[in-house]
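Supplementary Text 2. Reproducibility record for the structural model of the 175-residue chain.

All settings were left at their defaults, and a single model was retained for analysis rather than an ensemble. We include the record here because the model underlies the residue-level annotations in Supplementary Table 4.
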Amino acid sequence: QDCRAYVSRSTEAGKVEVDSQILSAVAYHVSLFGVPDNRGKSLDLSKGKNLFHKVGCSSCHVASFTTRDDASIPEFSSLKVYPYSDFLLHDMGDELADGVSDYLANGREWRTAPLWGIGLAQHANPKAAFLHDGRARTIEEAILWHGGEASPAAEAYKSLSRDEREALIKFIRSL
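Retained model, structure tokens:
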């Protein structure tokens, strides 16, 4: 009720819905949200995890790193996180290119998306899709769309047996 009242007071021309103090408080609160826990702790995912490394996924989807010790938010200092990303730009080839430059990225380059929580995407939204533009309907399709620098990993994935592909996808869904 308080939120509705606040919004109705701020609908006049020239008035903002949320002032900078409230926006800062909300942004701080959201920045402290935890990431989804790994849901595969009780499962034997070693085969899929080993294949994740073997085919080359981990060259860009880096499992973990430790945050710097002087983070602007103290709760984030020296924190070990498991994003499964290097957060770097990579040339993903013509198939994923959109020809649009964005700051330092050209139309073929994309930031490595973190994989944490990926297994929950379609639970939260059954129509959720993957890749930067949602063209992949499944995790497997997303892997197969990888080109450019990621071509060797996509090709290695294609050469896996059905059971190996299933084990790899099961591992990725657990993240």
